[in-house]
Design brief:
By secondary structure, the chain is mostly beta strands. The protein is 8% helix and 47% strand. The longest helix has 14 residues, at 3-16.
Length: 323
């Protein structure tokens, strides 16, 4: 996290520390916060301004290590009480020691999401969605694809408050699973004449078109809500900002689902915490690669998220467009 973001987060936290927590994805007494590396299990009027991530890559024989910064932006607008449109984009800053810094936009992603089922007694929520990556809307030289993809996605959240497990009742899990159908299938292009007729088994690296793999992606969070502990289980005497904290760890995974493939399977863990308030939340997590394909250095992700349905409860910005 940059010094500016640290100062901003501390200032905001001090300003709102006395306010009660509120949020959008609610099932009974359970509030599911907005996670940092994947989407939450419900729909609401909200925005991330911004979501900041940083990863350092190895030199891999180049002029030096790489530094990748992503400034992400998200806006969620409810259409009805249980449906929403979600818009995601971001600005990438890619810097390699000894080389020119590259900057550019990511491809725009639009998601239609339906909060299909909510069980308040069992603190359970599930939603269905369709994500659409709009190809060629980003900047090519920073790696964004010319072709897009479509991702059917399922989301869920489950709190443990309905179980007789004492101080473990504040635990909850959330997750999502998606399958990406690439607009243009990845294919091997034969090497030029004189280099063999097939790259497979010839010792010659294959040539690929500019298509993409189909791919699986999944995520899971395990979170422990201090606000839930003190309001629903027992008050342990925490006050101020400490009473509004949700420690958690998130896991993300992706894997190719079609052949040939050029993207390996990756696993990443993200331990950290979320501070929740009436106006929104602030989250900070480490990004820890769990396999070599995901990287060799620990990165970081931070989020400042605003709850428009609390800020503008009587305004179209903060409530569904349709009754």
């Amino acid at each position: 996290m940059t010094g500016f973001l640290k100062r901003t987060a501390l200032a905001v936290a001090c300003a709102v520390g006395a306010q009660p927590a509120a949020a959008h994805v609610i099932a009974g007494a359970r509030v599911f916060p907005v996670t940092l590396t994947f989407d939450d299990p419900g729909v609401s009027d909200e925005a991330s301004l911004p979501a900041l991530s940083y990863m350092r890559g190895a030199a891999n024989g180049g002029t030096g290590p790489t530094h990748d910064v992503d400034l992400g932006f998200e806006y969620d607008k409810t259409i009805t009480d249980t449906t929403a449109l979600i818009f995601n984009d971001g600005w990438d800053i890619d810097q390699t020691n000894g080389a020119k810094t590259e900057t550019g936009w990511e491809n725009l992603v639009i998601t239609g999401k339906w909060q299909a089922y909510t069980d308040a007694d069992h603190e359970f929520v599930t939603s269905l969605g369709i994500q659409r990556e709009m190809g060629a809307t980003g900047t090519g030289h920073t790696g964004d694809d010319r072709f897009g993809s479509t991702l059917p996605t399922v989301y869920f959240g489950k709190g443990f408050g309905d179980m007789t497990i004492g101080d473990f009742r504040p635990f909850a899990v959330t997750g999502e699973l998606s399958y990406a159908f690439a607009d243009k299938e990845l294919k091997i292009i034969q090497p030029p004449i004189g280099l063999g007729t097939s790259p497979v088994g010839s010792g010659i690296a294959p040539y690929f078109n500019n298509g993409n793999n189909n791919a699986w992606a999944g995520a899971l969070s395990l979170q422990y809500s201090i606000p839930y502990l003190q309001s629903q289980v027992r008050n342990i005497g925490l006050t101020g900002w400490l009473a509004q904290v949700v420690p958690l760890v998130e896991f993300t995974w992706s894997s190719p689902a079609s052949r040939p493939e050029t993207t390996p399977t990756t696993w990443t863990a993200a331990p950290g915490f979320i501070y929740m308030a009436q106006w929104g939340e602030i989250g900070v997590e480490a990004l820890v690669p769990l396999d070599r394909a995901a990287g060799t250095n620990v990165g970081a992700v931070a989020l400042v998220h605003f709850f428009f349905d609390d800020w503008f409860a009587d305004n179209p910005i903060g409530k569904p467009l349709l009754p």
